[in-house]
Amino acid sequence: MRKLCLAVCVAAGLLTACSSTEESQQPTAAAPQPAVCNGPTVEIGGAEPRYEPLNPSVNQDYERDGKSYKIVQDTSRFTQAGLAAIYDAEPGSNLTASGEAFDPMQLTAAHPTLPIPSYARITNLSNGRMVVVRINDRGPYGNDRAISLSRAAADRLNNSNNTKVRIDPIIVSQDGSFSGPGTVCTTIAQQTYALPDRPDLSGGMGSASSAPQPAQPAGDVRPISNDTLQSDGATGAPVGGSGFLGAPTTLASGVLEGNEPPAQPQTQPAAATAGGYVVQVGAVSDKARAEQYQQRLVQQFDVPGRVTQNGAVWRIQLGPFSSKADASALQQRLQSEAQLQSFITSAQ
Question: Which pLDDT tens digit goes with each residue over 31-88?
C-alpha cells in the first residue's frame, strides 16, 4: 500500500512539473501600454479617419505563392518600417481587395496584413513628412516592399520606389475618437474650412436676393497649409507654395486657400443664367500645371472643364453647368470623393 501511494505521489509530481514547464513556455499576452509622446505634437492631414466596419471577405488569414499571411488582430501593438512601392495604375482600371475602384488620386495604400478598411500614419523616414492613408487593398507581393502607396500619397511624402517609411496604425472608435501608434505626437487635422460668404440665388433666374448673413463655421476651424509639400511628378496636382493648390500667397482670413472669393452678387438678373455656373477648385500661377490638373479632374469626374486667366493666376474650373443644382452636385462629389474644397460662381 505504501508503494502504491508513493507511485501515485511521484506520478502526480511529474504531471505537475510537466504542466508548469508547458505553462512557462506559452507566450503571455500583456496588456497594451498606452502611447506616450515625449516630444512636440504636430498636426498632420491626409485621408480623414472615420469608423468603418471591417470587410469580412478580406480579413481572414490567407496564403499566397506558398507564403502564409496572418491578419493583424491588435493594431495597437503594430508598427513597421520598410520600403514603400508606388501603385500608379489608371483610375478605375483595377478593383482593390475591398471591391472599390482604384484611384491614384486618393490617399490610399495596400498592405498584406493590416485590416481592411483601416487607417495608418505613413512617415517618410528620409525627410520626416507624414500623411494619413486609408488601407483598402492587399499587397505588395513578389518584392521586398512593406506597403504600396497611391500616387497621391507618394507625392505628399515625396516618395520614390526606394524610400523607407514607417507604418503606424490609427484606430478609430465608434464614437469617432482616435488612438493607436499613429496618434503618438500627432493630431489629425479636422476637415473643416472657413468658406467665404455666398450669394443667395434661390430667387430664380440667377438674381440675388437680400445680402446673406455671414456664416459662422461650425467646429474647430484649423488653418490648412501645404507650404512644406512638393510634387516631383510633372502631372501631379500642384502643391507647392504657401496656399492650397500652389497659390502664390496666403489669402485673407475666411477665404479658401487657392480659390478666389466669388464675385459680388450681380445686379443683372439674366447674367448668371446666360453663361451658367462653374465650380472653381483652385487658382495657380503656372498655366501648364493648371491645365494638367484640370485635365485630371475632367477625366476623373467626367465633366467639362476649363482654365481661365485672372491677372497673375490661372483658375481651374469645372463646367459650365446650366443649373446651380448640377454645379452643387459636382461640388459635393469633389468633397466626398477627392476631399477638394470648391465654390460655385458664374461661368462668365
Answer: 444 456 777 888 899 999 999 999 988 999 999 888 999 999 999 999 999 999 998 7
What backbone torsions phi and psi does residue 208 show, to the nearest 5 degrees?
-90, 135
- Let me know: does 101 contact 89? Beta carbons within 8 Å: no
Which whole-number Å values give the CA distances from 164 to 154, 158, 170, 176, in the listed order? Answer: 12, 11, 19, 30
Q: What are phi and psi of 167, to 5 degrees?
A: -115, 115
In CATH, what number does 42-188 get?
Answer: 2.40.40.10
> How many CB atoms sit inside 10 A of residue 73's CB?
11
pLDDT in tens, 250-307: 433 333 334 444 444 444 433 344 468 999 888 777 888 888 888 988 998 999 999 9
For residue 16, what is the enclosing H or E element? helix 2-25
Strands 145-150, 80-87: pairing kind: parallel
* Fold of the 244-346 domain: Alpha-Beta Plaits (3.30.70)
Domain boundaries, the chain: 42-188, 244-346
pTM of the model: 0.49
Would you say 132 and 120 are in contact if contact means Cβ atoms under 8 Å apart?
Answer: yes
Q: Kindly report the CA angle at 285 between 283 and 289, in degrees rounded to 5? A: 80
User: What CA–CA distance (Å, rounded) separates 122 from 130?
Assistant: 5
Peptide bond preceding 199: is omega within 30 degrees of 0, i.e. cis? no
Kind plus residue range of the DSSP H or E element containing 329 = helix 324-338
In this structure, are residues 346 and 275 in contact, taking their beta carbons and an 8 Å threshold?
yes
- The DSSP-derived string for 84-127 is EEEE-PPTTSSB-TTSPBP-TTS-EEE-SSS-SSEEEEEEETTT
